[in-house]
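Final report, results section. Input specification for complex C-07:
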Amino acid sequence: MRGESKEEKAKEKELERQTYSLPVGPQHPMYIEAENLNVYLDGETIVDVDVNVGYLHRGIEELMQRRNYLQNIFVAERICGICSGIHSMTYCQCVENLLGIDIPERAKYIRTLVLELERLHSHFLFLGVVGYEIGMDTVFMYVWKDREHVMDMLEQVSGNRVNYAMPTMGGVRRDIPNHIIPSMLEKLNHLEKRTEYYRKLFLRDRTIIARSRGVGILPKKDVERLSIVGPVARASGVRIDVRMDFPYLKYGDLDWKVIVEKGEDSQARVMVKVLEIFQSISILRQCLKKLPSLDREIKTKVPLAIPKTEAIAIMEAPRGELVYYAMSNGTDRPERMRIRTPSFVNIIYSLPIMLKEQQLADLPIIVASIDPCFSCTDRMTLIDTKSGERKTVDETYLKRLGERRSR
Amino acid sequence: MIFEILIYPGFVFLVLISMIYYGILRKLAARMQSRIGPPIWQPILDFIKLVGKEDLNPEQAKAGFTLWPFIAITSVLIAGLLTPIAGIVPLSFTGDIVVLIYFLAFGSLAVYLSGFSSSNPFGVVGSMRGLIQMIGYEFPFIVSILVPVVAAGMLSPFLINTLQIHYGWFGFVFPFAAIAYFISILAKVEIPPFHTPGAHQEIVSGYSTEYTGTRLAMIELTHMIKLFVLISLGVALFFGGSADMVTFLVKSLVLLFVVTLARVLVARFRIDQILKFTWFFGLVALIDLVRVMVFI
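Structure output:
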């Protein structure tokens, strides 16, 4: 966040004198969503980066405080178009924590299954985007063709491709019938074969290596200092995964491992996701194997009004740790909702470190390699109408405001 | 003579077949990427559509903004007239291969100057990259062309074409020069891995970011004609030449297929990697040049 203190303003002026700035976004072919990176360049080398988020702010938290718990499931689901499942499930988990109830065993398996399917489709999407960003459209086309199998599976399970609407408070809304399990297993076999091909491709193809190895290095000490989460942290050798650290749903009972790579560069971040696809496929197989033997109950009854209390729910989204905090006040609406999304941490803090001293040509692959999700990142932006100055409100700024209030 | 310059194999034929060739390239690439792809006449439809669109002038555009795209297309069209297509050359005189090299280079240069004149940061970065890329590919291009020229002892692509029909393929005799020539086709037409000057993910559309309507159509057409001219020059200089339309189509389409393979198989190079890559192949082509000068 530049442009707040005098020193920073002077630094900005100095930068503008030495270099020229290139506005990457808010509308740019690199992004699917709107975001602005102001890149200061010296020739082709990046000197500094200004990350401006806030173009997609929709006031979700306020929106959720005005609706009842049941309506909020659908609001949460629409926070992000890619990780829609994890948002609604973490929300439901959070409300169940408020009530202190447990959901049926079968519902837990179905939730785990949908979450892993979502991780699969998100990771396939990521691999395709990486191929596109380094100018290799063929990879993009191939990967997204295979991703269709995952979308088909999601449609088989939930009837929808993007917003699955699977969870509800106290369980899930739809059961998975036994007769679709064989065809799902078949698709998983096909996907495993294809992923093996992509693993070899991203590991061995010489042009891909030339563009990704040693590019966008994020050192382990910076990851620990800035509390980066998810696959980005795991690619820098930090063993962090909510599924393993605080097991929720059925992850504690299933057999799987946390993937850690030591490369710290873009290639390591790609490899983490490729290997996680294998893990997801294995988890899915275990779920599908277990499912027919379980009791058919998928839902417990929940009251609509919740007594005054507070609760938190943490889950591992495809991009990292996702935290929901809820405070109830005895009515059917939450008093306060707070969502902390993984991309927010990863984008704001890690991008300036990774992009410094890199080539402009490497910017797309570096930005893509942290798999940014802007729609869940955006916070409130203040615009001073007199000077036209814009500020994005982040945690430090809010903390400072709080300190000033309490003085 | 007038018919040859204006209709066949002159301007009209050149423009149409270049678009069709580009359409074939797009269709082939789509099939290789397991897509259906556009019909092969799609570039013609695109061209007609673009010509019908509004021309926008950015406020800060410099004087040559309108001029450069037209200079670019004129240059490559003249280069096309000097190239043997199916054994016919509309314009031919002594030493025309030097003029051909000059017009091809000037076609690229005019396109990059159009980026500078648009005053858009993306356009300027794209043009800078393009000029750096030119430093890279002109060397292997000229060295690889010199090899058949020195071997044949004449400066006319038409005569080299005829010579090859009788004495066999220069591509087999000088494989290094042929490879360097192929690499410089990719680099000159900005086909992957050399699509750095117009890299969408980095600099939107590079030099053509500010262009719309007819002028954008001219820039696009420049690329298509350049591709066709380079392919037919390749057939004339390295791949046995062609005396009739059938041989020409077969040979040039095979070359186009190989170009398409390169397009779908590789990722984009960074600009520093491009320089290393192209100069390496330039030096490789020098081996053939030394061979031809010392031994033949």
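The mean pLDDT of chain B is 87. The longest helix of chain B spans residues 121-152. This concludes the modelling results for the funded period.
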